[in-house]
Each structure stands twice: as C-alpha cells, then as structure tokens.
Amino acid sequence: MQAPRIPYTILALAPLAGQLERAWKEAPVVLDRQEPARALATLRPSLYISLPRDLCPAGGLQLTFQRLRDFTPDGLLESQPYLADLAAAGRFLATARRQGMPATEIADGLRRWPDLPPLEPQPPLGQENRPAAPQDADNDTLDRILSMVASGPGDRVAATPGPAGPSFDRILDEILARIFRDPEFRQMEASWQGVRLLAGQGGLNENVHLQLVPATRDTLEETLAGLSSDLDRPLPSLLLVDCPFDSSARSLHLLDALARCGHALLVPALAWIIPPFFLIDSWQEMDRLPFLPHYLATQEFAKWRRLQESEAGRWLGLACNRLLCRFPWGADNRPRRVNLEEKEPPWVAPVWAAACLAGQAMAATGWPTALTDWHRHRITDLGLNMAGTPPLPVEILFSDSRMDQLRRCGIMALATARGRDFVCLGGEPMISADTTFSYQALLSRFTQ
Length: 448
Fold this sequence. Notes:
Elements: E1 8-14, E2 29-30, H1 37-43, E3 46-50, E4 60-64, H2 73-79, H3 81-99, H4 103-110, H5 134-146, H6 168-180, H7 183-201, E5 208-214, H8 220-229, E6 238-245, H9 249-265, E7 269-273, H10 292-295, H11 302-309, E8 316-320, E9 323-324, E10 347-348, H12 350-365, H13 400-408, E11 411-415, E12 424-425, H14 437-447
Parallel strand pairs: 1-5, 1-6, 6-7, 7-8, 8-11
Antiparallel strand pairs: 2-5, 3-4, 9-10, 11-12
Helix pairs in contact: 2-3, 3-6, 7-12, 8-9
C-alpha cells in the first residue's frame, strides 16, 4: 500500500522547562533534527536548588540550561557562574600551594571570588590557645588555608593532614551531588535525554517531526484541554506524556483526560506507569503478585477497569520499564573535572522509547506499525545499570510469562536481552487490550 505523504508529528508533553505556574499557552517548539539543542535554548529551562549557606552563602542556586551538555557535571561547571567560581578558586589554591605563594597573596587572590563561602580553618588540637610565633605566623596561616585544598581529578592537589574543614573542591563536589539527586533536576534531565534519544534514533526526517510542549503533572489537564479545543493548529500524529502514573484516583483522572484527548483528536496517546500502579514499591516485587489479569480484576482496580472499558481507552497506551540513555556518573563514567557518584540510575521514561520505535517504523516504511519487530526497530547504544545482575539497560528483565500477562492487561513493556545494550517493545496493546497501537495509528493516519 502506498504510504500517504502526510507529516508524522510526535507531540511530546514533558517537564522540559521545570515547574510551571500555569499551563503552556504558546505554540509547540519544533525540534530541529540537525540542531536539537536549539529547542533547549528556546525554552531555557531553569530550576532552583536550595543549599545550606556553608555551601552557598546565597542559600541556593538558580540553574539555567541552554545546551544538552549543561545537564552534565562538566557542563554545569561551564554554564553556572557560582560553580565556575568554585572550580576556579580551587585551581587557584592548588597552584598557590605548588608555587609556595605567601598567605597574603593567597588572601588577595581569593578576593576575586567574593561570593564564595569563607574557609575558616581551626587550629590543630591542643594549640587552640597558643599564639603563633611572629616568624611562624605567615607560614602557619598558609598551612592552615592550604590544608583545606582537596585533591581530585585533573589539577586538584592533595590536602595536607591538619584541621578538618571544607575546601572549595569538596564544596563543589557536595553541591553537584545535591543537584544530581534533586528530584526536579532528575526529572528534567530525563525528559531532555528522551528528546535526545528521539532526535538520534527516532527516525526524524523531512516527514517525521518532533514538537515539544512543556507540561507537568499539575498543568497537564489544562494543557490537554487546550489541545482538544485548538482547531487552528495541525493535528499531531502521536501524543506522548512524560509524567509517571500509578493507580491513584488523581492518576486515573489524568489518564482519563489523556485518553479523551486522544479520542477527540483521533490520535494515539502514550503515557507510562510506575510500580505503585500495581500497589508495589519496585518491579522486583512483581514476583509476589499473582496472575496479573486476575490481580487487576480485584476491587482495588475497579476505576482502572472502567477506564479500560471506555471508548476513549482504545486511544491510550501505557508503557512501563524505564531505560538508561547514559551510564550513571561514577566509577564507570567519571566526569573530567569533579568527583561525583550518582546513587540512583538516571532512568528515562519508556514512552520516549515507544515513540522512537514509531518514528523508526515511519521512516522505514511510511507506516507507524510493527513496533514489536525488534530485528528492524530497536534502540541501541544505551547505558547499563551495573548494580544489577546481570547489568541491564532497563529496570527489570520481565519473564516471558509476565510479559504475556502485561499484554493481556493492556500494558506495553520494554524488553531486552541479557548482556545487551538495546531495548525493544515486548508488546503494543492499548489499554483496552482488544486493539493495538499499530491499528489505532493506522486508523489515525486514514482520518487525518
């Protein structure tokens, strides 16, 4: 069958700009596949990180991102002035120690960075009340200042034994650790990693496009209402929502709004769920659940079943099992200029992977179908969770039996193979379970 030359537009609603006071009212930002970072520069996402005043006298940092690199530790040092000043001061103290610079010159040099926290060394134990001899005062001051200069990657120099206290390098390491475990930062970075994934492996070309709309869980309902009522703009071909959902009343209400939006536009919509959807804390607890179709037939999931059985449910697909687009920062992926050990893997929502596979199919055949054909449509060159056994690019390796049960329940799941760095789609049911993404996508193409 001849594929129609109708543009295939993926419209992604995601927390791409941080917290929003109100729903996004402007036109979607069109991603340039040649320069995907231009969309980031257009949106200029920002967020505020609260910090103790001994780390940052201002009490926090307002971070702004204009490049994808700005989400990396080294990129943050280049783009955020306070962090750049900390790094520069650390290098200055390291150089001062190597050159034997007098303490007075060090003090003068540090005045170039007046906004940094003061380093206030304590005298060694047992010498708190002993005044320094005049001839030793200058050297003692220098030793106490430089004893706080930590070592690390690059040009950091080891601290000499002496009084405990912070150094600029250790302050920088602690701030970066707090940034990379901040939930809002992690969510924003994950969404932009998803954009990067689609730009690189989503088949974007002159006929397959990606548009971005900033949205959060709090603004999603209003954003969807605006999409349904705005008839002046061209219709998307696929709706993607990057917000985690469980089986709570609030989540089901938003999923119902998304399904109704897809139904009104006759466009498939994709969202994703987390383990609490099944009333568990992690995917590893799936083993204690009974046969999933029977489990979801219990009274606790009555509202979910009503959504499944609705006419709008045919237009909603739910995915699970997040993926890694990069290795966590740490022993296997060290930043060049700082010490950073991420405690949690930087997971990316599975909806980005599903949309990638739809884009690949469109680019290859002109139809967004056969997403489960992993020989032709899969995502490669992913990070691995080295804490897992075996290391995986996804949260969990579902058994064939569980994968089949998820399909019967109307839930898509990402799949992989042991020891491999690729993912594919283990099934493509919509939540009604009696139809598939491919069928609804074809129906949408014929109606547009």
